[in-house]
Amino acid sequence: MAQYLASCPLGCNSGLEPTPLILPEGPLLKCSDCGQLISQATEERYRESMLEFDDPKGTLPDAASRRRRFGLGKKWLDKISSLLNKPPSEIRLLDVGCSSGAFLQIAKALGFAAEGVEPAPRAAQTAKDAGLVVHCGYLQDIGFPPESFDAITLFEVIEHLREPAELLMECRRILKPGGILLVGTGNTASWTVASEKEAWRYFRIENHGGHISFYNPFSMAKLAQHCDFELARIDTQNVRLVEKGQTSPLLYRLSRIAGELLNLPAKFLGRGHDMQAYLRKS
Ligand SMILES: [Zn+2]
């Protein structure tokens, strides 16, 4: 298998060692310093797995999950507003990788001056058709003026990048001093990974196209430091013990109940599999 990185891409300069987490692309590699996990997927496999993203439906939720998504989005936006100590109406926000604009719609409804960036043309067009301001392309190619935004959000983006520093530095450049960058990604230090190991769907490029780099709170803090951000806050939530279809329906239902019971302690101990890191431009 082709191996593109010889050392940790988060600024550790430490070597990458194979782990017992074996994917179809080969064992995940781990930074001996920060614990970042790196996929050995070839460039070809990676590109092929990304094709699913240019879908006009994008990430628009169905009616059943819309209310839950609104609640989640509001929670994250409230935290941004409180970290900036500004009301939404005074916050210019950019959602990078906005897909068809589901999060932008929440931000707009709450009064934020929100716009997005999306490289997939059909998803971007759906967002534009819904009246949202969306720039089609990659952030680095758009060239926003320096210090344009109070807040930037990056949901489900950073795990797609072999070398994330360039994108974070561009976010830093276009953030105002004291601005907040919210990074949402999975957490490999979660009880979900402790239980499911390589079966965690998030690791699987066949289920989650383009996922090649996997964070934990410590590696996220390393990346923040490497890109000259201060880590203002980190949250994790949600625990799952087995994936659907890996066990009998009864055991799956019981594991769901156990997962629910573990959610609260996981939040306090940083062991949930969903992670949001709020980085501040110092
Ligand atoms: Zn590292």
Q: What is the strand content? A: 15-25%
DSSP, total strands: 11
- Mind telling me which CATH architecture this is? 3-Layer(aba) Sandwich
CATH topological fold name: Rossmann fold
Main sheet: which strands, in order across?
6-5-4-7-8-11-10
Q: How far apart lie the N and C ends?
A: 40 Å
**Individual helix count:** 9
CATH class: Alpha Beta
What does the largest sheet look like? Answer: 7 strands, mixed
So what's the overall shape?
globular
Number of domains: 1
List each distinct ligand once: zinc ion
Describe the protein in words.
The protein is an alpha/beta fold and 282 residues long. It has a single domain, classed as Rossmann fold. Helix content is 35%, strand content 24%. It contains 9 helices and 11 strands. It has a 7-stranded mixed sheet with strand order 6-5-4-7-8-11-10, sandwiched between helices. The longest helix has 22 residues, at 63-84. The mean pLDDT is 92. The protein binds zinc ion. Zinc ion binds at residues 8, 10, 12, 14, 31, 33-34, 36, 219, 222. Residues 8, 10, 12, 14, 31, 33-34, 36, 219, 222 line the site of zinc ion.
Brief description of this entry?
The protein has 282 residues and is an alpha/beta fold. 35% of the residues lie in helices and 24% in strands.
SSE topology:
Elements: E1 16-23, E2 26-31, E3 37-38, H1 43-50, H2 63-84, E4 92-96, H3 102-109, E5 113-118, H4 121-129, E6 134-136, H5 139-142, E7 149-155, H6 165-174, E8 175-186, H7 191-196, E9 213-214, H8 217-226, E10 229-237, H9 249-269, E11 274-281
Parallel strand pairs: 4-5, 4-7, 5-6, 7-8
Antiparallel strand pairs: 1-2, 2-3, 3-9, 8-11, 10-11
This protein binds zinc ion.
